[in-house]
Design brief:
The protein is mainly beta and 707 residues long. It contains 4 helices and 68 strands. Its main location: secreted.
C-alpha cells in the first residue's frame, strides 16, 4: 500500500541563499522552502535576526540553518558580505562570499563556495576560485577589467549600460565547464563576434567597448531579449575564422580570415595578409607563415612549419607534440626578423636552414634561449635549450644536439659533483646540474640554475635571475647595479639572504617560491622595526624606513622572516604585519584600533580625521597596537592622533612620552606609555606619517595629539 504525504526524512541541503542585484545595489535573500533561522555575526557573536527579501548593502556575515518537518537540520551555511579595497582573500574559504571592490585597483579572490564578486571603479581583477561563482561587472572607470571564474560552472554578468567608450572586459575560464555570459541592456542583434588571434571579441553596434574571451571559455551567451546562444551558435556567429575537416585540407588565410583550424588530417595551411593564427590539429600538417606577425601551432603529429617571409618582425613557430621540422630560408629574412621556435625537449625536432652554411652563423646563450645570429644580418632565430635535436645546413652539415651545445657560447655547465662556478663577461648562463653547487653571477644579466642538490646561488651586478632547482637552496642577493633581481627557490625548503647594506635606492628584489614549503628570508643590517609590509595586488611588499628599495614576495611564499636583532616572524606574524588598508571619507572620520597586533594603513581623505589608539593588550609597550602607517596625514586639515588611552599618568608634557624620527619614508612617531622616567613600558614605534617631515615641537604646537 502506498502511504501518501510521508514526511521527507532527507536532511535539507541549502543552495546559494544570497545574491546581488546590480540595478538596485541591494542584496537579495532567497529564503529556503523549509523553516529556517538567520543569524548575524555581531562583535564575534551570532545573534538571531530577521531579513527582508531585499536589503541594503552592509559589511557583515549571515548564517542560515534550515529544518524540515521531521526535524532534520541542514548544515549551517555562512555568507560573508564585504566591501573591500586592494587585495581581498576570504578568511574562511568554505563560506560563500559576496564581495564588491572599492575605488582603486582591486584584486578580489573567492573561496571554495559559490561566490559573487563585483568590480567597481579602477582596474579590477576578480578570481572566482572553486565553486559555481558569479562575477559581475560593476562599472569601472578604467579601461581594463579581468573576470576569471576558475574552477566550476561560472556566470558572468555585464550590463552594457555600465560600459564606457573604452571598456575592455577580459573573461578567462576553462573550456570544459558550463560557463555563461549574461548580457544586460542588449539583444543578440546589437553585437558582433570576431576571432582575433586566440580571443573572440564581442563588439557593440553603438559603442567602442569590447568583451573578450578565449575560445571555448563560454558555453552560452544569454541576452535581454530572451535569446540564448549555445557553444555551437557562438561558433557559428564568430567571423574571421575558418575550420577544416577530418580530411587532408588545403586552407588559406586572407583579409577576412586570420584564424584557421585544420582539425584532423594531414593539412596544408598558409597565412595571409593579417596577423594569423594557424592551428594544424591532429595529423602531419604543413603550416606556412606569410605577411604580418604569424603564430603557427603544429598540434599533434610530425608537422612541418615553414617561415614564409613575414613583413613584421616577430613570427612564432610552435611544433607541439610530435617530431617536427622547421624550415627557414635566410633569403626571406628582413633586417629585423625575429623567429621564435618553441617545442618540447623530449622530441626529435629539426631546423633546416636554407641559403646558409654552418660557417655563416653563431649561437649564443641569452637568458633561457639560444640565439642564432647571422654574420651579415641583424635577423635572429631563437629557441629554447633542447627544443632542437638537430640543425641542417644547405652545405650538407648537420649539427646534432651535442654539437649545438658545443657551438653555443655564453653558457657553462657544472658536473654531477659539488661545483664552484663563476659567471663573467663571456659567460652569463650557468647550470650547476647535480651536486651541492656554489654559483656566482658576473657583470652581465645572469641566469644561474642550481639544479638538483642543496645549492648556493649569489647574484652580482646586472639584473640576475637565480633558480635554485630541487633541494634546500640558499639564494643570496649580492648587490646588483640594476634595479631588478629575481630569486626563485623552486622545490625544497629554501633560504633567501638579503643584506640591506647592499641595496641601492632603486633595488627591487622579487622572491618567488612555493607556498607549501618552509622558506626563510634572512634580512641583514636591519631590525624588525625598520621595515613595513603592505599588500599590493597579489604581492607583499617589504619597504624600509630610510630607503626606496623594496623586496616583494607572493602570499605564503615565506614561512618566516629573520632579522639581525634576533626577531623571527613566523607565517602568522608575517600576516599580522601586512598593513590592512582603512579608507576614510571626505568628512571628519574617527577611526579606532580594534584588533591586537594588526598593522593598518590609513588613507582617510579630506576632513579633520582622528585615529584613536585603544589599549588592546595592557602588557604590551604599544597596548597591543602594531606600527602602522597614515598615508595622508595633514596638519592643515587638523588631523589628529589620539593617545589618551595609551598614556599612563600623563603629566601633560608630551616630550616625556612621545618622540619622532624623520626618515626617508616619512615621520615615525614612537610612544613610551608611562614616560621616560618610568620603566614598566619602553618607547616603541607606533605610526609612520608617510612623506611627512616635521618636528615633534611643531606637531605639539599644532595640536596634532589628543592626550
Amino acid at each position: 500500500m502506498t502511504q501518501l504525504n510521508t514526511p521527507d526524512a532527507t536532511t535539507p541541503i541549502l543552495g546559494n541563499l544570497f545574491s546581488y542585484d546590480v540595478s538596485s545595489d541591494k542584496i537579495i535573500f532567497n529564503a529556503p522552502s523549509d523553516s529556517y533561522i538567520i543569524e548575524q555575526k555581531v562583535n564575534g557573536t551570532w545573534i538571531q535576526v530577521n531579513l527582508e527579501e531585499k536589503f541594503d548593502w552592509l559589511n557583515t556575515e549571515y548564517r542560515v540553518t534550515a529544518t524540515d518537518q521531521t526535524g532534520n537540520s541542514s548544515q549551517p551555511q555562512t555568507t560573508v558580505i564585504n566591501t573591500t579595497s586592494g587585495t581581498y582573500h576570504p578568511t574562511d574559504p568554505t563560506s560563500n562570499q559576496i564581495v564588491k571592490g572599492s575605488t582603486g585597483n582591486d584584486y578580489l579572490y573567492g573561496g571554495n563556495g559559490d561566490d559573487t564578486l563585483i568590480s567597481n571603479t579602477g582596474s579590477d581583477y576578480l578570481y572566482g576560485g572553486a565553486g559555481n561563482d558569479t562575477l559581475i561587472y560593476g562599472g569601472n572607470s578604467n579601461a581594463y577589467t579581468a573576470l576569471l571564474g576558475q574552477a566550476g560552472n561560472d556566470t558572468y554578468i555585464v550590463d552594457k549600460a555600465l560600459l564606457t567608450s573604452s571598456s575592455y572586459i577580459h573573461i578567462l575560464d576553462n573550456s570544459a565547464e558550463e560557463n555563461t555570459l549574461q548580457l544586460k541592456s542588449v539583444s543578440s542583434s546589437d553585437i558582433s563576434l570576431k576571432q582575433s588571434d586566440s580571443l573572440i571579441i564581442i563588439s557593440f553596434n553603438d559603442s567602442a567597448s569590447t568583451i573578450r574571451f578565449g575560445e571555448g571559455n563560454l558555453s552560452s551567451i544569454v541576452f535581454d531579449d530572451g535569446t540564448v546562444w549555445n557553444k555551437a551558435q557562438i561558433e557559428a556567429n564568430t567571423i574571421g575564422k575558418l575550420l577544416g575537416t577530418d580530411g587532408a585540407d588545403t586552407l588559406q588565410a586572407d583579409a577576412e580570415i586570420s584564424t584557421i583550424y585544420g582539425l584532423e588530417g594531414n593539412d596544408t595551411i598558409q597565412g595571409g595578409v593579417q596577423n594569423d593564427y594557424l592551428y594544424g590539429g591532429n595529423g602531419d600538417d604543413t603550416l606556412i607563415s606569410n605577411t604580418g606577425s604569424d603564430y603557427l601551432y603544429g598540434g599533434a603529429g610530425n608537422d612541418t612549419l615553414i617561415y614564409g617571409g613575414n613583413s613584421n618582425a616577430y613570427t612564432a613557430l610552435l611544433g607541439q607534440a610530435g617530431n617536427d621540422t622547421y624550415i627557414v630560408d635566410k633569403a626571406l629574412l628582413t633586417s629585423s626578423s625575429y623567429i621564435h621556435i618553441l617545442d618540447n625537449a623530449a622530441e626529435e625536432n629539426t631546423l633546416q636552414l636554407k641559403s646558409v652554411s654552418s660557417s655563416d652563423i653563431s649561437l649564443k646563450q641569452s637568458d633561457s634561449l639560444i640565439i642564432i645570429s647571422f654574420n651579415d644580418s641583424a635577423s635572429t632565430i631563437r629557441f629554447g635549450k633542447n627544443d632542437l635535436s638537430s640543425i641542417v645546413f644547405d652545405d650538407g652539415t648537420v649539427w646534432n644536439k651535442a654539437q649545438i651545445e658545443a657551438n653555443t657560447i655564453g653558457k657553462l655547465l657544472g658536473t654531477d659533483g659539488a661545483d664552484t662556478l663563476q659567471a663573467d663577461a663571456e659567460i652569463s648562463t650557468i647550470y650547476g646540474l647535480e651536486g651541492n653547487d656554489t654559483i656566482q653571477g658576473g657583470v652581465q644579466n645572469d641566469y644561474l640554475y642550481g639544479g638538483n642538490g642543496d645549492d648556493t646561488l649569489i647574484s652580482n651586478t646586472g639584473s640576475d635571475y637565480l633558480y635554485g632547482g630541487a633541494g634546500n637552496d640558499t639564494l643570496i642577493y649580492g648587490g646588483n647595479s640594476n634595479a631588478y633581481t629575481a630569486l626563485l627557490g623552486q622545490a625544497g625548503n629554501d633560504t633567501y639572504i638579503v643584506d640591506k647594506a647592499l641595496l641601492t635606492s632603486s633595488s627591487y628584489i622579487h622572491i618567488l617560491d612555493n607556498s607549501a614549503e618552509e622558506n626563510t628570508l634572512q634580512l641583514k643590517s636591519v631590525s624588525s622595526s625598520d621595515i613595513s609590509l603592505k599588500q599590493s595586488d597579489s604581492l607583499i611588499i617589504i619597504s624600509f624606513n630610510d630607503s626606496a628599495s623594496t623586496i616583494r614576495f607572493g602570499e605564503g611564499n615565506l614561512s618566516s622572516i629573520a632579522f639581525d636583532d634576533g626577531t623571527v616572524w613566523n607565517k602568522a606574524q608575517i600576516e599580522q604585519h601586512i598593513a590592512r588598508t582603512v579608507f576614510g571619507t571626505t568628512g571628519d572620520d574617527v577611526i579606532e584600533t580594534i584588533t591586537a597586533n594588526q598593522t593598518y594603513a590609513y588613507t582617510l581623505d579630506a576632513g579633520a580625521d582622528t585615529v584613536i589608539f585603544n589599549v588592546l593588550d595592557n602588557t604590551d609597550n604599544l597596548g597591543g597596537n602594531t606600527k602602522s602607517e597614515w598615508t595622508d596625514f595633514n596638519l592643515v586639515e587638523q588631523d589628529k592622533i589620539d593617545l589618551s588611552q595609551l598614556l599612563i599618568n600623563d603629566s601633560g608634557n608630551l616630550l616625556d612620552y612621545v618622540s619622532v624620527q624623520d626618515t626617508q619614508a616619512g615621520l615615525i612617531i614612537s610612544v613610551d606609555r608611562d614616560g621616560s622616567s618610568q620603566s614598566t613600558y619602553h618607547s616603541q614605534e607606533l605610526i609612520l606619517l608617510t612623506d611627512k617631515h616635521d618636528t615633534l615641537e611643531n606637531l605639539i604646537a599644532s595640536n596634532a595629539f589628543i592626550h
